[in-house]
Amino acid sequence: MATLEVTGLEKSFGGVRAVQGVSFSVAPGEMLALIGPNGAGKSTCFNMLNGQLRPDAGAVRLLGQDITGLAPRQVWRLGVGRTFQITATFGSMTVLENVQMALLSHHRRLGGLWRPVARMDAAPARALLERLGMADQAARPCGILAYGDLKRVELAIALANEPKLLLMDEPTAGMAPQERVSLMALTAQIARESGIAVLFTEHDMDVVFSHADRILVLDRGRLIAKGAPAVVRADPRVREVYLGSGAVTGAH
Ligand SMILES: Nc1ncnc2c1ncn2[C@@H]1O[C@H](COP(=O)(O)OP(=O)(O)OP(=O)(O)O)[C@@H](O)[C@H]1O
Ligand SMILES: [Mg+2]
Question: 178 CB less than 6 Å from ligand 1?
């Protein structure tokens, strides 16, 4: 069964048809990229999946369950994680404490006993940081981390909730090119190991073409192409949309 199945999604803002008849699915462990020029409707799609926006029409199913129109908190509870474009961590707390907080809230959600962070076993948070290559940063306050490390903490916080689906809207924005590739390689590895479906938007075509299993191309609210990276890159309509940018024509 698909982790996420979207059918006939529609959203207009006044006269602007931001998203029109969008349908796709994401399988467990799959990295699916949603690309398209500025204003194509990518963030609007995301916001309909995470509950921020109610679709005008269409359906969103998570593991077969209809979640269309549910509030963000309900969607999160059902296992839809997200990373934020603007990093949302507590600056004065350490990396370890931030991850412990996230694990604590996840366990409480599952009906576990409440206990203060200070008395929590730190081992699960340390294990998660180890997995993200962040073990050596555990004791540092988040407020002094380099941007790329902060993005990893954000990913750790999202993973603490054991999501079935992870939504990442421009996860590598503001990062140096090498950091982008390594963050997405790590995300892909974890997604495959844990069977997490990942839907991400990204303007860096190197990142898209090297880490997506499949790509969806949105233009003015409509899906104009979908498929494996090689198929999408060769699609004449995609080339037309990106013409002049050279973005999908390079020989990577
Ligand atoms: N809250 C809103 N109110 C009015 N119009 C909106 C709103 N949100 C988005 N739009 C419009 O909907 C269209 C799609 O915007 P959206 O932000 O989804 O695009 P995007 O693909 O995420 O672009 P970008 O690559 O710049 O992030 C645009 O024309 C935008 O101006
Ligand atoms: Mg956007």
Answer: no
51: burial class by Cβ within 10 Å (0-12, 13-18, 19+)? buried
- Please state, rounded to an integer, the average pLDDT across all residues of the chain: 89
- Tally of domains within the chain: 1
Least Cα distance to 155 among 122, 177, 133, 124 occurs for 133
| CA 41/CA 39 separation, integer angstroms | 5
Neighbours of 57 (CB within 10 A): 14
The verdict on residue 154 lying in a domain is no
33 lines ligand 1 (CB under 6 A): no
| 97 found inside a domain | no
Confidence at residue 108, expressed as pLDDT on a 0 to 100 scale = 76
Whether the predicted model's global pTM rises above the 0.70 cut: yes
Domain that holds residue 175: 4-79+163-243
Q: What angle do CA 219, 164, 216 make, to 5 degrees?
A: 15
User: What residue's CA is closest to ligand 1, atom 1?
Assistant: 13
